[in-house]
C-alpha cells in the first residue's frame, strides 16, 4: 500500500472502473481494478489525493447482494492497516423512487468512524459481480 504523489487521476488506461462518484464537497471516490491490485483514491480532482491506496487483490473483499430482501446492496472492502474503506452502493427496491445510497464507510478496528456519501446521479457503479473474495 502506498500514497501516490501525483495529482488525482481517473483509472489508468486498461484499468476498469469498479466505482466512482463525486461527493457534496466536490471530492471524488474511486476504485479501480489494476489486475493484481485494487486501487482506492479519495480527494479533490484538482489536487493530490488525500488517500491513494494500491492493495493486493487477495486482500480486498466484496459483499454481494444475495437476491433476497428489499435492499439491494454491494460493497468492496479495502483494508489499510486497522482502517477499512468500504465503498458501497445500494437501493431500496420497494419504493417508487428507488432511492440510491452510495459512498464510503470508514471503519477503524471494525467500528464505523465516518461515512462519506456520493451526491447526485453521476455514479459509476460496477460493484455487482466484481471478482473478489467474499467479505467474511
Short descriptors:
5-stranded antiparallel β-sheet; disordered N terminus
Outline the structure in words.
It is built from no helices and eleven strands. It is mostly beta strands and 136 residues long. A six-stranded mixed sheet has the order 9-8-7-6-5-11, with no helix packed on it. A five-stranded antiparallel sheet has the order 4-3-2-1-10, with no helix packed on it. The two termini are 21 Å apart.
Layout of secondary structure:
Layout: E1 17-22, E2 28-33, E3 37-43, E4 51-56, E5 61-64, E6 71-80, E7 83-92, E8 100-108, E9 111-117, E10 124-125, E11 133-134
Parallel strand pairs: 5-11
Antiparallel strand pairs: 1-2, 1-10, 2-3, 3-4, 5-6, 6-7, 7-8, 8-9
Gross geometry: globular
| Count of individual helical segments | 0
Major beta sheet summary: 6 strands, mixed
User: What's the structural domain tally?
Assistant: 1
Order of helices and strands: EEEEEEEEEEE
Distance from N terminus to C terminus (CA atoms, Å) equals: 21 Å
- Tell me the fraction of residues in β-strands, as a range: over 45%
Spatial order of strands in the largest sheet: 9-8-7-6-5-11
Amino acid at each position: 500500500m502506498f500514497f501516490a504523489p501525483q495529482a488525482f487521476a481517473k483509472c489508468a488506461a486498461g484499468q476498469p472502473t469498479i466505482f466512482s462518484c463525486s461527493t457534496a464537497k466536490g471530492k471524488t471516490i474511486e476504485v479501480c481494478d489494476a489486475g493484481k491490485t485494487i486501487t482506492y483514491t479519495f480527494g479533490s480532482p484538482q489536487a493530490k489525493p488525500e488517500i491513494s491506496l494500491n492493495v493486493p487483490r487477495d486482500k480486498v473483499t466484496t459483499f454481494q447482494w444475495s437476491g433476497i430482501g428489499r435492499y439491494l446492496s454491494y460493497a468492496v472492502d479495502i483494508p489499510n492497516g486497522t482502517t477499512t474503506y468500504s465503498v458501497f452502493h445500494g437501493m431500496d427496491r420497494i419504493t417508487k423512487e428507488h432511492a440510491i445510497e452510495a459512498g464510503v464507510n470508514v471503519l477503524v478496528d471494525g467500528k464505523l468512524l465516518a461515512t462519506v456519501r456520493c451526491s447526485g446521479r453521476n455514479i459509476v457503479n460496477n460493484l455487482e459481480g466484481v471478482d473478489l473474495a467474499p467479505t467474511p
